[in-house]
Amino acid sequence: MAEFQEVMRQWRRMCAAFKECEECPQYREYQCYNTVKRVFQCGDIESLENNVMKWAAEHPEPVYPTWEEWLITQGVIKENPTGGVGWPMPKLVERIPADIAQKLGIEPKGDV
Length: 112
What we know:
By secondary structure, the chain is mainly alpha-helical. Helix content is 50%, strand content 0%. It has helices at residues 4-17, 25-30, 35-42, 45-58, 67-73, 98-104.
């Protein structure tokens, strides 16, 4: 069984991926707005989890570059011949969050 938080995070992502509730597989199976009530009454928790995690596996999240990778491509900072930029800055090695990347027009990395 997957961790509860991960299932809920993927369920939220799945919900956001559909413009109309009727397009969502959860809605078709559980009528979404009553999903929690129905699942717990019927004891069908594993089925719900399986559906959500199956969808998540079929629709992986886009992976965006790190701040360092992006700033190097923009010419803001230069990469050392040994790799990296030469000074430890924890924020630079973090991946750019999806919402910020979309606002900046940064494309997801394709080679992950």
